[in-house]
From TrEMBL, chain B:
This is Uncharacterized protein. It comes from the Bacteria. It comes from Actinacidiphila epipremni.
Length: 171, 462
C-alpha cells in the first residue's frame, strides 16, 4: 500500500505496508522482498530435511538457487529453475502481483494479476546467475523468523503497537 | 455523547502541529547536510518550546542540527521536543474527548520515571535511529535499514525490551518496503517521525515505564477487543469496565497480550498465537465477565494479565455493560511519555445514529454531527464487517483521532440479520469460534503454523 491515503503525510496510523495474504506454506515456507531481492526458502520435493535457498535480484533478475548446505540446484542453469518459479508464485500470493512487480522493477501489473504476469517478463530477459553469497543471509533471515515463534508472549502492554492498526486491505 | 464537541476546532492545535510538520519535513530530507528550509523547520520546533524547561536544550540541538553537526544527544533533545509538543496536542484532544463522553477522569498518576538497566543494545538502537535521521526518509537505502535487524534480534528475547523491539521491527519493515527513499512519491512524514521519536526516547533506560503499582480485585466486564499488528508482531487489547470488589468507583481498564510472529501468521492465526496466554480472550468470545484477584494494575489502567489471578465469571453482555456500566466508569490517565494523539482510544457507546456512506467513507450522524467511522480497523478474522457496521443500530467503539479528525473504530455493533437483532463483535473469534467461516480460517491458520513449527523443529537447532 505505498499509495498512501490523501492525508497520509499527516497521519500517524496510516498503514504503509499491507499485511501478507494467507497462503499454504508447505512448498515455500518463506518468501520476502528484502535487501533488493525477492528471496526465500523452498522445501525439497524429495527430502524432508532439505530446503533450497533461492533469490532473484530486483532490476537485473540475477538468480541463485542452492540447498541450505550450499550445493547448487541442478535446475538453475540457463534460466529460472522450478524452485525460483514456485518462489515467485508464492510471493505473488503473499504480497500481490502489483507489489512484487513494483519491487522487482518490471512493468507495472494489476494487484490481482496471475504470477505468470510477473515471472514471464523477468524470464524473457534471459537473466544470468547472480552472486551466491546471498544464500547464507537469506537462510539466516528465515531462521530468524522461525525463531519468532519461540519468543515468549508478554501481557505487559506495548503502547507502540497503537501505531500499527490492522487493515482490511489485502495484498 | 456530545458529538458536536468533536467537530469543533481545538485552540492552538494547528499551531502546535505546524511546528511538528516543520520538523518532520526537515527529518524527511535528512540532517546530514541541512538546507536553509530544514534549518527553518528545526528552528520552528525549538521556537514552539519557548518558555518550557526543554527550550535551552532544544534550541542548542536545533542549531547544531542546522549545521549538520547534531550528535545523538542533540537528536534525542529534538525527539523529546517533538514528543512534548504532541503530548500537549494529546492533552487538548483527550480533554475534548472527555467533555464529549461526559465521563469522570481517574486521578492522574504521580509522574514516576521508571528505572532500567542501560544495556548496550539500547545504545545500538539509538545509533541506528541516528543514522536514519541523517539519511532522511528520502535518503534511506537497504544498507541503512538493514542495520535494525541485529538490534531487534538482540532485544526480542528480553520481554523488558519488547516495546522498543516491536516498534523498531515494524518500523524497519516499512522502511525496507519503501527503499530506496529517493524513489518515494510521498513520504508518511508524520508517521515515520512519530516512530523515530518514540524509538529515540525508548532508548533511554527507564523510559519504557515503571512496573505496575497496584492490584485489582473485582469483576471485569469486557467491552471489546482492539487488535494491533505489523508484519512481525501482534497485540490484542481487551477494553473492559473494572468494578472493584471493595465498592470503589468503576474504572475503564485494558488487558493486553502480544507476541512476535513470522510474517505469514495472519488472520485467525493471530488469535491462535495469543489465545493460550490470556484466558480473558476466551471469556470475551463466550460473552462472560471475569473475576480477578490481586491482578497487577498500572496507574494508566493497564492490567498486566496473569491467568492464575483470574477465573471465568457469569455471562455478561457487552452491550449491557456499555449501556449501564460504561457511563459511570472513570477514564484512566495516560503515562506522561505515552501522551500522543495516536494513543487516544476512548471507549464509547453510540446508538440512535444515522449511518451514511460518504465519499470519504462511512459516517455516523450523532445528534446532528457526522462522525467518520474507521471500518478499515475491523480485523478480517472476525464476524464484524463494514457492511454490518453500515446497517447497525448501536455501536461499541473506540474514539480515536488521526490526521486532523476524531473518528470511531467499531468494536461491536447491534444490527438486524434476517430481521433478528444480533450483536457482532470484531474480536468474537479471539477465544475460538464455531462460526463456519471462522472454523475454515482457523484450519488454514493451524496448517500454516504447523508447517512453520515443523520447519523450526527441523532446521533451527542444527
Amino acid at each position: 500500500m505505498s499509495d498512501l491515503v490523501p492525508d497520509g503525510q499527516r497521519s500517524s496510523t496510516a498503514r504503509v505496508v499491507a499485511p501478507a495474504s494467507p497462503r499454504k506454506l508447505a512448498k515455500v515456507p518463506f518468501v520476502e522482498l528484502a535487501d533488493g531481492r525477492l528471496q526465500g526458502v523452498v522445501s525439497s520435493g524429495s527430502d524432508i530435511a532439505r530446503v533450497y535457498v533461492s533469490s532473484v535480484a530486483a532490476g537485473t533478475f540475477a538468480y541463485t538457487c542452492s540447498t541450505n548446505n550450499n550445493r547448487p540446484c541442478g535446475g538453475a542453469y540457463g534460466g529460472f529453475c522450478n524452485h525460483i518459479r514456485a518462489l515467485i508464485g508464492e510471493a505473488v500470493l503473499q504480497y500481490g502481483a502489483g507489489r512484487v512487480a513494483r519491487y522487482m522493477r518490471v512493468e507495472p501489473v494489476e494487484a490481482d494479476s496471475p504470477a505468470q504476469s510477473v515471472i514471464a517478463p523477468m524470464a524473457q530477459t534471459r537473466p544470468v546467475p547472480g552472486d551466491k553469497s546471498a544464500a547464507a543471509s537469506v537462510f539466516s533471515r528465515f531462521l530468524r523468523q522461525l525463531a519468532y515463534l519461540e519468543m515468549a508472549p508478554t501481557t505487559a502492554p506495548l503502547p507502540e503497537m497503537q501505531w500499527f492498526p490492522p487493515t482490511r486491505a489485502v495484498a | 455523547m456530545r458529538a458536536d464537541l468533536l467537530a469543533e476546532s481545538v485552540d492552538g492545535l494547528d499551531e502546535a502541529l505546524a511546528a511538528v510538520d516543520a520538523f518532520d519535513e526537515a527529518l524527511a530530507t535528512g540532517l546530514l547536510r541541512p538546507q536553509p528550509a530544514q534549518a527553518a523547520g528545526l528552528a520552528q520546533l525549538a521556537g514552539a518550546l519557548a518558555g518550557s524547561p526543554l527550550h535551552a536544550n532544544v534550541a542548542e540541538a536545533a542549531a547544531k542540527a542546522a549545521e549538520g553537526a547534531a550528535g545523538e544527544d542533540h537528536l534525542l533533545a529534538l525527539a523529546a521536543a517533538r514528543t512534548a509538543l504532541l503530548g500537549s496536542v494529546h492533552d487538548a484532544l483527550a480533554a475534548r474527548a472527555a467533555e464529549a463522553t461526559g465521563r469522570p477522569a481517574a486521578e492522574p498518576p504521580a509522574a514516576d520515571a521508571g528505572t532500567g538497566p542501560a544495556v548496550n543494545v539500547l545504545a545500538a538502537a539509538r545509533s541506528w535511529l541516528a543514522d536514519l535521521a541523517r539519511c532522511g526518509w528520502r535518503g534511506i537505502d537497504h544498507d541503512v535499514v538493514s542495520g535494525a535487524a541485529p538490534v531487534v534480534s538482540a532485544m526480542l528475547p528480553d520481554p523488558a525490551l519488547r516495546r522498543l523491539a516491536a516498534l523498531l521491527d515494524g518500523f524497519a519493515d516499512e522502511l525496507a518496503a519503501s527503499c530506496p527513499g529517493s524513489a518515494l512519491e510521498s513520504v508518511p512524514a508524520r508517521r515515520w517521525a512519530d516512530l523515530w521519536s518514540r524509538g529515540m526516547l525508548l532508548t533511554l533506560p527507564g523510559a519504557a515505564g515503571a512496573p505496575a503499582a497496584g492490584t485489582a480485585t473485582g469483576r471485569l466486564l469486557p467491552l471489546g477487543v482492539d487488535l494491533h499488528e505489523h508484519a512481525t508482531a501482534v497485540q490484542a487489547q481487551v477494553h473492559a469496565v473494572f468494578e472493584p470488589a471493595d465498592g470503589a468507583a468503576p474504572l475503564l481498564v485494558r488487558a493486553s497480550v502480544s507476541a512476535p510472529k513470522p510474517e505469514t501468521i495472519v488472520g485467525a492465526g493471530l488469535w491462535q498465537l495469543l489465545r493460550p496466554h490470556m484466558s480473558l480472550l476466551t471469556a470475551v468470545s463466550e460473552g462472560r465477565a471475569m473475576d480477578v484477584t490481586g491482578m497487577p494494575l498500572t496507574a494508566e489502567g493497564d492490567l498486566v494479565w496473569d491467568d492464575a489471578r483470574a477465573r471465568p465469571g457469569e455471562s455478561a453482555d457487552a452491550f449491557s455493560t456499555a449501556r449501564v456500566a460504561l457511563p459511570t466508569a472513570a477514564d484512566p490517565a495516560t503515562a506522561p511519555l505515552d501522551r500522543h494523539p495516536a494513543r487516544i482510544a476512548v471507549p464509547v457507546f453510540l446508538e440512535g445514529y444515522a449511518a451514511a456512506q460518504a465519499e470519504t467513507g462511512l459516517t455516523f450522524t450523532v445528534a446532528g454531527t457526522a462522525l467518520p467511522v474507521d471500518t478499515d480497523r475491523v480485523p478480517l478474522a472476525g464476524p464484524l464487517t463494514p457492511e454490518a457496521v453500515a446497517k447497525s443500530a448501536a455501536c461499541i467503539g473506540l474514539l480515536r483521532w488521526d490526521a486532523g479528525t476524531f473518528r470511531v473504530q467499531p468494536l461491536a455493533v447491534e444490527t438486524a440479520v434476517r430481521k433478528k437483532p444480533v450483536a457482532l463483535h470484531a474480536g468474537a473469534w479471539a477465544g475460538g469460534t464455531a462460526d463456519k467461516a471462522g472454523v475454515k480460517a482457523e484450519k488454514a491458520a493451524t496448517d500454516a503454523a504447523g508447517v512453520l513449527r515443523e520447519r523450526a523443529g527441523r532446521l533451527l537447532r542444527k
